[in-house]
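Figure 3 (text version): structure tokens given as input.
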């Protein structure tokens, strides 16, 4: 009974880490993003080793290539602040 509860807990933890993984993958490229992704991958590796019944999430299973993050260009001109109310 205890082993089954432990496996359920590990499966839930794996799902949580996969959710974090897919959210962080959308972040703009940075050293912080790389560190968080490395941490998530390390955690997933440990958890997947602990749970032999692991099945990959549908997002990971359906991937053919690494996801890309699209960054919008910054504004080319500064916005002007209107300080007088409209009549």
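Below: residues designed for each position.
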């Amino acid at each position: 009974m205890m082993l089954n509860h432990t496996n359920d807990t590990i499966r839930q933890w794996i799902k949580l880490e996969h959710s974090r993984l897919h959210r962080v993958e959308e972040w703009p490229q940075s050293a912080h993003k790389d560190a968080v992704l490395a941490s998530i991958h390390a955690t997933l590796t440990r958890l997947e080793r602990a749970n032999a019944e692991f099945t990959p999430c549908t997002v990971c299973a359906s991937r053919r290539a690494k996801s890309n993050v699209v960054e919008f260009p910054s504004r080319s001109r500064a916005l002007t602040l209107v300080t007088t109310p409209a009549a």
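The helical segments are 2-24, 31-50, 58-62.
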